[in-house]
Amino acid sequence: MKPLKPSHRERKRYLLVRGKSLSKKVIEDVILEFIGILGFASASPQVIKSSSEKVVLAVNRESVDKVRAAFVASDKDIRIEKVSGSVGKVKW
Questions:
Q1: pLDDT tens-place string over residues 3-56
Q2: What angle, 0 to 180 degrees and rounded to 10, lies between the N-to-C axes of helices 24-43 and 64-73?
Q3: Which end of the chain has fewer beta carbons closer than 10 Å to its terminal beta carbon, N or C?
Q4: Strand 54-60 to strand 12-19: parallel, antiparallel, or no bridges (unpaired)?
Q5: Which residues contact 25 (CB under 8 A, 6 or more apart)?
Q6: Regarding the domain with residue range 12-84, which homologous superfamily does it belong to in the CATH classification?
């Protein structure tokens, strides 16, 4: 199969998320609760790096505002520290 052209690939933004006892399940639940299944599918969040208090999350470029709103509206102690266009610029 041929690789995709750069103009056809999905553009990603990388979010540095901080909080207590973060896990993939908690992040998925927060996003699903706010934007629903179709919004979750269009955002296509992927965990790139994770530890107990920090997570680097890759999100589709068009859905960054919705995902940020989901974390703000959540009652959990989760906040977004930084949004960047490359993984290297998100300070781990």
A1: 999 999 899 999 999 998 889 999 999 999 999 999 999 999 999 999 889 999
A2: 140
A3: N
A4: antiparallel
A5: none
A6: Ribonuclease P, Pop5 subunit (3.30.70.3250)
Tokens of 52: 């107990």
Q: Give, in order, the Cα–Cα distances in Å from 77 to each of 9, 10, 42.
A: 33, 30, 25
User: Is the whole-model pTM more than 0.70?
Assistant: yes
What tens digit of pLDDT does each residue of 43-64 get? 999 999 998 899 999 999 999 9
Residue 43 makes CB contacts below 8 A (sequence gap 6+) with 31, 35, 59, 60, 63, 66, 67
> What whole-number distance in Å separates Cα of residue 82 and Cα of residue 40?
20
**Position 70, amino acid:** A
Are the CB atoms for 31 and 40 separated by under 8 Å?
Answer: yes
Q: Where are the domains positioned within the chain?
A: 12-84
